[in-house]
């Protein structure tokens, strides 16, 4: 029993295999119980730490949701006040004319809030890849994460050897199937790193034809609804610039760049582009 008592006094010292074999049954049982208690305490500490981290994550998610709701409330309130101000009578028109400056400031505030909300969603989606055209139900047998990884292996076998293609999360969007839309819902996969997402999309552009079990599909970046519309708004101008060899490019999230007079110009929206053109 002297060995086990010494072990109890100095728990940080581990017994060698020879010392353990020399213990009596009672000493060995005592040692085993103590080690199991230590394991249980360590396990409980780990569980406690995980619970604290989960609570912190939930708190952050709750704060983000609260911020979004607050911004939506502000937008709704401003829009309501603007609608109430739209009266066709001449008296109201006179008041609007007298308060042109405050109205402009209000419009700028609305635009700033909308841009902040759009930027917030684009930051969340920046690490995502959108897969378009995969038939519904194909993920039932293997899981949607495994399906997305198989698509990467089928199309980019060399790239798969260099980067981690395992998705943090994958899901169909929207959550429910709409009978009004015969096309399959898109798959959103959240990558481990933005750099990996960009390399995959670059490889998809170079390959041109991306497939799922031989059937053509598409890969694209994931954008907020507002940003997606802003990118579409550039398309006509983009094609015109391409036809006259201005080397246009659509930059993230919805900026247009092109080369003119030996310089690369970048514009965040049509308004800035029009201002540039009118001053030339």
Walkthrough of the structure:
It is a single chain. The chain is an alpha+beta fold and 280 residues long. The chain folds into 3 domains: 125 residues, no CATH class; 96 residues, Alpha-Beta Plaits (2-Layer Sandwich); 53 residues, L1 transposable element, C-terminal domain (Rec A Protein, domain 2, 2-Layer Sandwich). The protein has 11 helices and 8 strands. Strands 2-3-1-5-4 form a 5-stranded antiparallel sheet. A hairpin with a 2-residue loop joins strand 4 and strand 5. The N and C termini lie far apart (95 Å). Pfam families: Tnp_22_dsRBD, Transposase_22. Belongs to the transposase 22 family. This is L1 transposable element RRM domain-containing protein. InterPro entries: L1_C, L1_dsRBD, L1_RRM_dom, Transposase_22.
